[in-house]
Amino acid sequence: MKKIKVSAPGKLMLFGEHAVVYDRPCLVTAVDQRLKATVEITDDNMFCLDAPEVDIAGYQKPMDCLGTGEIPSGAKFVEFAVKNFIEKYPLTYGVKVTTASDFSSQFGFGSSSASTVCVLKALSELSGKKLDNKKLFDLSYKTVLDIQGKGSGFDVAAAIYGGTLYFVTGGKVIEPLTINEISLVIGYTGIKADTVTIMASVFEKMKAQPERVERIYDAIEKLTEDAKIKMLEGDWERVGKFMDFNQEYLRDLGVSSEKLEALILAAKHAGALGAKLSGAGGGDCMIALVTNDTRKFVESAIEKAGGQIMHVKPNAKGVRVEV
Ligand code: PMV
Asked: Residue 9: phi, psi to the nearest 5?
């Protein structure tokens, strides 16, 4: 096998963001917008990358120089993924990667982690190593940490396992949940969130007010545990309430924004069972839990408040080889 095509889903955080960076659980669902990577073995011992969705065209360097020199931000995750793979499982050939995405990297659906997962899955198949999901997770998570320094790995887990997961920091627990349908409306703020900067600001807050922030994390942990039970029971009214509470704690943490609050308020006034930001905050998307009856009212209220509706479905399949 010389060439393989792999795809992995994006993600949406349902509960537990930020707290999950500090040894707490979260609930995450994979979405049906996918990142695709075609990975080819070449005989020139070069690493080549075309990633039009992040403005990378004809990027290349020798395989033994991976991770060195100036690396454009759009190439970092794929380059470090290949580097980490060959450090563990040396290859005697070159690697050409071409990525394509169903979604813009602006939305916060996790395109960087999905591309990392795709490339590592492809190399694992092409080299015959056939890594299981946990090994794939560990190598992908290491790649994300090499670049970002911090992060829980929830996005990597969603890209690999798909579905809806109960996840604890660093993959200490990755538990797939059997949930048939989560009826969500997703509103994009139009603003790209800078996850690394927001995580750093939360870290500063933790240093300044450790007890207060720990209390917030404990409360978010409790909500996440309760939300897991109520989601499994299909008690969406309660899940909606928990979303509202989770949003209050995120606001306390200082990671919400005016635009997010406006979209969340609009969704609530239009009859959503609950609504909150999803991910780091500061921008990206908010989510609202709806019923079939309220969906269209919530969607139009979010649009009126200046949001863009993202038509994505939760509970999507994890990484897979495309035929
Ligand atoms: O910005 P996003 O959607 O990648 O979400 C970040 C979520 C955090 O909990 C803040 C960070 C993490 O790695 O879990």
From this structure: -80, 160
Q: Which atom of ligand 1 is nearest to the CA of 21?
A: 14
Query: With a 6 A CB cut-off, is 86 part of the ligand 1 pocket?
Result: no
φ/ψ of 3, rounded to 5, equals -145, 140
The answer to whether 24 and 43 are in contact (CB under 8 A) is no
Instruction: Report which ligand 1 atom has the smallest distance to the Cα of 155.
Output: 4
Position 26 confidence tier, pLDDT thresholds 50, 70, 90 = very high
Residue nearest to atom 2 of ligand 1 (CA): 279
Give yes or no for a contact between 141 and 82, defined as CB atoms under 8 angstroms apart.
no
Q: Under 8 Å CB-to-CB from 179, ≥6 apart: which residues?
A: 163, 164, 231, 232, 315
Cα angle: 229, vertex 179, 298; to 5 degrees: 90
Distances (CA, A) of 259 to 88, 174, 251, 269: 44, 32, 13, 15
Beta strands 285-289; 308-310: pairing state:
unpaired
Residue 107 Cβ inside 6 Å of ligand 1? The answer reads no
The residue with tokens 């009826």 is 183
Which amino acid would we find at residue 89? Y
pLDDT tens track for 211-257: 999 999 999 999 999 999 999 999 999 999 999 999 999 999 999 99
pTM listed for this prediction: 0.96
Please tell me the distance from the alpha carbon of residue 221 to that of residue 23, in angstroms, as a whole number. Answer: 9
Tokens of 142: 């290491």
Contacts (Cβ under 8 Å, ≥6 apart) of 48:
42, 58, 59, 60, 94, 95, 96, 97
Q: Are 302 and 185 in contact (CB under 8 A)?
A: yes
Q: How far apart are CA 165 and CA 9, in angstroms?
A: 13
